[in-house]
Structure formats: structure tokens, C-alpha cells
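Section 3.1: Structural characterization of target chains.
Under the original work plan, the team committed to producing a structural model for every single-chain target entering the pipeline before any wet-lab resources were allocated. The record below documents one such target. The sequence was received from the expression subgroup and is listed exactly as submitted; it comprises 740 residues.
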Amino acid sequence: MVRLTLPKPKGQARREPAEDAVDAAAAEPKPPPPLPLFFMLSHLEDDGLIRLDGVKLAVMEVMGLELDEPKLGAFAGSLNAVDFPVQLLVRQHPPVLQDLRVRLTEAQPEDLPQQTRDAADSLGRLLTTLETREGILDRRFYAVCEHSRADELRALLVRAGLGVFPLNGNSLKLLVLACALGGSPQERDEGEELSVEVNRRDIRIGERLVRSLHLGKWPRSLAPGFLQGLMAAGAPMDLSVHLGAIPTEQAARTLEWQKVRFESAQSLSFKRGRSMSPEAEIALEDVSRLRDEVQRGRERLFHASLSVTLHADDQDTLKDLTQRARAHFAATLGKLDNLAFRQREGLLSALPLGLNAVAVWRTLDTSSLARLFPFSPPDLDTRSGTLYGIDLRACAPIVYDPFDGTHLNANTAVLARSGSGKSFATKLGVLRGLCRGVRAYIIDPEGEYTDMARAAGGRVLSPGVPGQGMNPFVIDRGDSEELLQRIGSLRRLIEVMVGERLSAERRSSLDHALAGYYSERRERTGFRDFYAYLEGETPEIAHLLRPFATGSLRDLLSDEGDDLLAREALVTVFDLHLLEPELRPAAAMVCTETVWAAAAQDPRPRLLVVDEVWSIMQHPEGAAFMVSMAKRARKHRLGLQFITQDVQDLLSEDSSRAITGHSGRALLQNAAFKLLLQQDAAAVSTVGEAFDLPEELQRWLLSCPRGDGLLLARGQRFPVRIEATPEETEVIEWRPGPRH
């Protein structure tokens, strides 16, 4: 038995030879070496780990990238500049989501209704299920080199477009323990005792089995994404690539010698009246081409080694994982060696030690090595925020917090055809957000969200119904910049309310009236107060607004000041389905402007959902208003989520349409997250062009199941599946009254 510890170097007192002899005579059979010694570790320092041979190593976590030809070219260029040994490590193991569950529980508001609290608790159970669900993995990428070359390696990886973050302190310690014992990095009991048993074909560490394999026969050619196919098998594994550059002079001499040898064999065959075998002709072509590329500096040669370490709980599972790994390489005429009686060396090669203990190498050129690209696919699992879905490609949970400040903004665009699940996905996001304290406001033109809001303990307001009017005319006059921006928003709102674009003269008069009205200090402002002011200053504009003051729309606007904040609910739905369709854009802008006024007074995480945003965007002033709000929402910690099934209209660049300045695309550019669900065949080409989607993704969006889609975030594409618990579905699809 050995203890789970990482010892610090300690000085040893000098002992006399006689004392050593007595101790040796009375000694029991030698116990297993301390665990770090078994794994060739001396000790850890805050910024690196020390091997037993005294070499200090730096370990850096690398963020994944989506694989394409430009990234392969950039990575190959970085490899050409590497002239020191480097280890590239990929770790994938079942995720540990305990900390996320704890944070979600701590963030729950105390005033959650019981049904909503049950839904929040069910999310915790779903996270627990994901930890043990087959195929759900936590994948991380690392680069290891000698500490003295860490800055150089980091610069090269950054030049290739990769995000690199050095590990130190507790993060480094947890990684080392996770690599040694298997599983994801997590806190462990350092007093825990573990047994280590080295067998012929595996190693038992505690209760887990580990088997190391080595790629003895490489495929003749490597296709891009070669390693991604292996990792997609869903097996818990550590995959390590060791590489060391061969000096250019030595590589050129070696290739020249091989070329001469092949040419001599060819000449000898011709003299004997024979022709070269096809294999020999191909080898001669490869050597000639590679020699020319090396001499021109376009390629380099590397010593390369690839090791795979599999983790399992029992022999049957380990056997199955081994067969899957071998089948992947056999499909490309490669072969994994068993490493019989050399399991410790294989395991050491897969640890972040920069050590190829197997000591078997294969010579590869830069292009072939670049195709390994062990930094893909990316995932969006920040372990902060809440669960948004399952990444279908990386087989990992998608977890992020749009309000944590690490994203461009908290805005989300949802584009989908009717019936693709966009309302369900939106409701689920709202529900999980309010369960951790994110207040939500929803502009609902068809009454789709009212039942969910009532089930979640929210409220439903119907603008236009007496007593439920909105007041967007409250402005904090203490902030001059905010005052200027809000006056512009109110001017655009009034233009949408009157249903036409005002002439330059009237726009000037309206702007003058707004500036003059808010320049006076008023204890309370409302629409009727403003209307009375307009009647005295600009009667012609007041005449256009008469329906909102004394006509059929007099209940749409109110003089109540901060009603939304005074009685702020978990979720507020503005139900517009009672209004005529031509009046909904104005009502939606009134509600949106009112929420903006509330957010300006009390910045905190809030979500504003605008369903069928095209109804606003089809008016030039409404489009300008939405784009302006999307740009400024982050200032008040407001996340704007807009939804539309009129994708073709939103992305159209037809200048004859009412929307001007390509405002639809501008709105999308100011959304850090885009969710594309199933698309219509008539619009998929427009979507593909707008988001630079390859043809295979466009075809997938045409036929993907309901609830599946493509999430665009951080410059990457994540195929996602929206998954809800039965308790969450009950809240989302809740209907009042008896069930039938």
C-alpha cells in the first residue's frame, strides 16, 4: 500500500555505515516505493513539476480548436519552429460536476415556487447522471516541455491560434494526481492509501485498471482528424504524443542517403532487366519530395511517438476499450503494441513528464505530424453557469455563464424554422437561468410563454389592458451619456408608434422636444405628462400620438414609474396576443424600452427575450433600436435573446426591403451566442453564407432532429442537443386546469 502524497524534497541526516548494516539485517521485505517515486516524480513546485532526474517541466493547458485546413497550416508552421522536445497530451475521462451542482444549489433564490424548485433539483440529478452516462467525457489538452523553454513553446502555440494557459499551484497538483490515478482533476484525500500492482498487460491502481498501448506500426499516411476519430470512440483514455526535432542538416543527409540507396537499387534492377516494385517506386518518390522540401525549409523531420493509456473498472470493460482502440488504428493499417511486461514504461509515457519511457520512435515530417492535431474538437464546458445541452461532437456537457464577463456580451440569437423546438429551448434556458437568480423578461407575441411564467411563479402583463400599461419614459438624468442614448431610443420608439418615418423637420422637432422635456428636473415622468408637454411645444407630433393618449391604445402606456422594479418577479411575460398584429411592433418596443429603463436603474443579470424579432426589425427605426440595444445591453448586465423563424427576411441583403443598412446581420454580429436549430431548405443557403458553414453542416441543419442544433460561440461551432428533465418539462409545458 502506498499513500497518495506528493512529497517535497527533504534533507537527510548522515548515517553511519554500522547503523545501515543493522537496519538492513532487521529490515522487513521492502514496501512499494512512494507513489510519486513510482511515477518518476521528485516533487512539485508552484510553477512546475520536477522529475527524479532533476529536470523541471512546465505544463500548459491548451484550448481546443475546430479543425480545418488554415488551422492545420498554422500548426505546421509552429511545429517547424520547434527545436526542443515537446509532449502533447490529451486526457478524456468522465466529468466531475459536483462543484457545479453545489454552485447551482447555492445560487437558487429563496422565493422559488415548489414546482420550480423541484425542476432546479432535477437539474442537479441530471448532472449526476451525466457523470456516469456512457460516452459523456471531459476532454482537456495539454503541452509539456522543459521549464526553460516554456515561454518559447507558449509563443509558438499562440501563433498557431491556440489559447494557452500555464498550470501552477493547486491546478498543477490536481492534474498530476489525475494523470497518475485516472479520472478528471479533483480534490483528493492525501491520506488515502492506494495499492499499485503491475501485471503483464495492465496495472491496477487502487480499484481501477490501466492498460498502456504504443503505436508500433504507423499508417503510411495520416488524414486530418486522425486522432479525433479515436477520441470519438467514447473511451476514457490518455493519449500522449512525444516529438523531438531532428536537426535540419542531419535530416537532409539522412534523406539524401536514402535517396541514393533507392536510386542504386533502381539502377541495379534495370541492369538485371527488372523493374522496381510499386512500393519501392513510391518510397523513392516520397524520399525525393521530402528531401527537396527539407532543403527549402518547408518541412522538418521529427522523432515521434504515440502512446495510449486506457482506464477501466474491470477486465471486461478494459478488453472492450482495447479492441475499440485497436480497431481504429487497424482501419488505417496501423497497429497498437501490447507492451507486455512494459506497462509501467507505457504509463510513464502518458504522464505529463515529457518522458518517452517506451523509447520507440518513428520519423515523421511536419505535414504528417500536423495532421495529428491533438487539440480538437473544442468544447464549451466552463464549469460555470448552468447546463445548456450536450455537445454531440465532443460528447461533453455544454456549460457556460453568459454573464461572467468572459464573453463579448450575453446576447443570444435563435434562428430556426417553425416546429424545430426553439420555444422549448428558450423556455428551458429561461427556467435554468431564473433558478440561479437571473430575472427574465419575455416579449411574447403569441402567448406561448404565459403558462410557463405562471408555473414558475412569474407574472403575465398584457399591454393594452387597463392597469397593465408600460412606462418607458423614466430616465436616470444623472448619467448624461445614458440620457443622450435614451432620448435617441425614445425618438425611434415614437416613430414606430406612429407607424411611419418622420420627416427631417419633424424628427428635429421631436428631438428638440425630448431634450427640452428631460432637461427640466421632474419628480415623476410618464407618457401623459410628456404628451401634455408635446401639445404645447409640437402640436403636430402630439396629434400623431393621440391614439396612445386618448384613443384605443390609451392603456398601452402608463404613468406608473418603476413598477417593474418595485415588484420584480422571477419572470415577466408581456403577452401581446390580444393586440392587432400591426400594433405589436410598437407594443414590443414599449415593453423593451421599459425593461431597458429598469436595467439602467438597477444593473444585475437579466435576460430579455424578444420572440419573433422580425416584427420589430421590419421597421427601419425598430431595426435601429434593436441593434442599438444589442450593442449597449452589456453595460447594464442585460442579456438580449431574440428569436425568429423569418431567417430569410432577417438575413436578406435586398436593398428594396424596408430594413436598411443590413440591420439583421448587424444584430447577429452583436450576439455572442447563436443557436441554429432545424432550418428550412429555402433559407439554409442564406444561413450557411451568413455564418460561413460548410456544406455538411448545412445538410445536417436540414435534417437534424427536433431539439438538436448548432451553437456558435467563441468563434467555434458546437453541435448541441437540448436535454431537459421531466420536472423541467412539466414546468415548461404546464397548462392550468384539468389534464385530458
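The mean pLDDT is 84.
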